[in-house]
Specification:
Helix 1 packs parallel to helix 2. The protein contains four helices and five strands. The protein is an alpha/beta fold. 43% of the residues lie in helices and 16% in strands.
Length: 118
């Protein structure tokens, strides 16, 4: 389901394919892990890789917002990557694409999160 951290101490969570296949139990488990990690990871930097996800529902979106708020309260960041067209469209319709940085793949997300400030 997930990898604990990248070499740069960024927590990387990869959604399992079941999250995008209307599997409520898999979605619940993933969202629980996301929220738990958002509360405790140090540094509070999280990348959610949605490469294997073809569908997201309201529970998933709510969990992303809650995780983002938890990370933000800890001066952290939530970054998304690997969004398929339907998932990106849902984010755009809900205007959630303005809350988070979104990258095509995890390599881009990691590179942007570890880029030194200008």
């Amino acid at each position: 389901m997930s990898q604990p951290t990248t070499p740069h101490q960024i927590t990387l969570l990869e959604t399992p394919a079941e999250v995008g296949s209307f599997d409520e139990e898999a979605t619940r488990r993933f969202c629980g892990e996301l929220l738990e990690r958002a509360s405790r990871v140090d540094p509070p930097w999280v990348i959610v890789d949605l490469t294997h996800t073809t569908y997201i529902g309201s529970h998933f979106l709510e969990s992303l917002v809650r995780a983002w708020k938890r990370l933000k309260a800890r001066d952290g960041r939530l970054v998304l990557c690997g969004l398929r067209s339907m998932v990106l469209e849902v984010m755009q319709i809900a205007r959630l694409d303005t809350l988070w940085e979104i990258y095509d793949n995890r390599q881009q997300a990691i590179a942007e999160m570890t880029r030194p400030p200008e």
